[in-house]
Amino acid sequence: MCMGSALRSGPCFLLGNFPIPSISATPSSVIPWNGSVKILCQGTLESYLYQLEIRENLTYRVVEKKLGFQEVAEFVINHMDTNTAGRYQCRYGKEHRWSAPSEALELVVTGLYDKPFLSTNGGQVAMPGENISLRCSSAHVSFNRFSLSRPGGATLSRHRDARLQGDFTLGPVNLSFSGVYMCYGWHSGRPYVWSAPSNALELVVTGTTSQDHTTENWIRLGMAGLVLIVLLAILAENQLGPQVIHQKDQQDLPDLSWSRQESQTEWTFRLTPKDHQGYS
User: InterPro entries per the record (predicted)?
Assistant: First the structure.
């Protein structure tokens, strides 16, 4: 059977048993009002038709099509607003058949409401293994949903059924939790329309883990071994040095040998080298 309204203006494609495409957004799926975003739909090298769709309740609406053999198709939204925010999916066609749709990609537009305030109940510095509690609050707008995110990254958590504030717990934390965090407020009736971003809150996770200690211990052992080798070399040089010097100096010292004359009882000393034989 055909895909109904999705292909009213095109040929009738059947559903094929193809790999499911993947969909992503760059630079982020959270876009400020009037900002631009690029949607990437990845299929196969044999794909010659791509289709971007936006979900509307139980059905969907075709947004744009791309024709041409390519593994990845790019769709650009130049101006994000409340009409372009929503849940997107894509699919590709080959061999006169359509793939199944991708998973949903949620595009959110921000800046429609005043920004909330992000704070931490404890300090902004934590040790690995600890938990960090954050609070997103609004003094002027009665949001019933709050979201915590990092700039350029995915939404980390969403707090539901809140009134004026949302509490988030991060942890147990490690060094990767260090960075800048922001939060947004929104209403459950308009899940893809968020407030302006809150103030940026920087968290720092400091200290070392057991793996870090092991690495440091190996470094210390290596340095100790190097110092030991240097000390042994110095000691060996000090022991061999005087012997070499003594052997060299002996060549310049007189050779005090003695001989007993057959007819005399006196001792005769001979001085060497040859230039001193005149004194014998």
Answer: Ig-like_dom_sf (IPR036179), Ig-like_fold (IPR013783), Ig-like_Receptors_ImmuneReg (IPR050412), Ig_sub (IPR003599), Immunoglobulin_dom (IPR013151)
